[in-house]
Amino acid sequence: MKKLASNNIEQFREDLVNWFIEEQRELPWRLNKDPYRVWVSEIMLQQTRVDTVIPYYERFMEWFPTIEDFAEADEERILKAWEGLGYYSRVRNLHSAVKEVKESYGGVVPNTPEEISRLKGVGPYTAGAILSIAYGLPEPAVDGNVMRVLSRILEIYDDIAKPATRKIFEQAVRELIDHDHTSEFNQALMELGALICTPTKPSCLLCPVREHCQAFEKGLQQELPVKTKAKKVKTVHLSAVVIVDPSGRMVIQKRPSSGLLAGLWEFPNYEVDSLEKLKQVMARDNHIVLEDLRPIGKISHVFSHLIWEITAYEAKVENVEQFTETNRKIAFVRDEDFQHYALPVSHQKIYEAHVINGKQ
To answer: Which partner from 41, 106, 124, 185 sits 20 to 30 angstroms from 337, CA to CA?
Structure first.
């Protein structure tokens, strides 16, 4: 790691912080430095784009404006608030941690690294973000944007895909951080990575700290950061079916309480790739014969480690209650009931396909 000279560090801080103060985006979580609001935003922003998060964040704060409101909410309500954001373990961990804050800390988010790091789902980055942004403590908040920015500024060749590398960048932030403007400094590094120092084709000529950047000086900005490629994702072919009776009731079932998309509701679906196989498994597992099955759409959904390729069907039956499933909780719902159930994005799309194609 190429360190900045001590006199350059002061100028680097000033250039970076002044740029952020003048150019920062207007985002709803920047309205104030309430640690609860900062906390929620940082959890939502993990693995999710800013533009996607904004409407979810605003709705979340409308539903749960205080720690007490969120701590007292039931799981169905919090999953519905999170519906569409994915990675649902994030909101479950947040809920558990917020309940602990209410019970053990009087509803006040802890302001020490030791205490805040003990909360469920609060890793080094989230802890650093809350402590620096909300409480003004000189703690590093190192995410992918920060690692990319600093790998170029300090010419760091360590592989950012390796968990151990984070320590190198945390130490770099500790050496560089502006103790008088910790909130602005950490947010500026993130903002710089999001807007200017992007993964491909960074806008170096617009960068407020390019004079401090080792990679820019040597023309190496396209070679950094070093990041090993992720493993190839697995593709799974599924068949899902919207079973509907003359009164408009449909069958949905609840996913298991642990694992992928835990606790969310979905239409019956099976890992089969043909209509005949779907009929067979429905007859075998659910004791229901669906003669009138017709396709209503194809849905592709990408997770970090796998891809679902779903063929959606619709089936008309006389009574949806003839559908039986011994190891899942089942609900029989009409269109107006869906507002009370949290569904994965893929199954929201299946419902949309039913609305558009199933009534033709």
So the answer is: 41
Range list for CATH 1.10.340.30 in the chain: 6-218
Write out the CATH class of domain 234-357. Answer: alpha beta
3-class secondary-structure state, position 276: helix
Condensed to tens digits (0 to 9), the pLDDT of residues 181-193 reads 999 999 999 999 9
pLDDT in tens, 218-262: 999 999 999 988 778 899 999 999 999 999 999 999 999 888 999
> In the CATH scheme, what is the code of domain 6-218?
1.10.340.30
Structure token pair of residue 58: 């605003």
The verdict on whether 42 is a catalytic residue reads yes
**Does residue 305 register a pLDDT over 90?**
no
Quote the CA–CA distance of 100 and 122 in Å, as a whole number: 12
User: In sequence order, which residues have a C-beta less than 8 Å from that of residue 342 and are 6 or more positions away?
Assistant: 76, 79, 80, 82, 83, 263, 264, 265
Residue 148 CA to residue 142 CA, distance in Å, equals: 10
Distances 170 to 9, 164, 182, 336 between C-alpha atoms, Å = 16, 11, 14, 49
CB 174 within 8 A of CB 140: yes
pLDDT at 359 over 60: no
Q: In the chain, which segments carry CATH 3.90.79.10?
A: 234-357
Cα separation, 188 vs 127, whole angstroms: 17
β-partners of residue 267 are none
Question: Which pair of structure tokens corresponds to residue 185?
Answer: 């400094």
Contact yes or no for 288/322 (Cβ under 8 A):
yes
- From the list 14, 22, 23, 42, the catalytic residue is 42
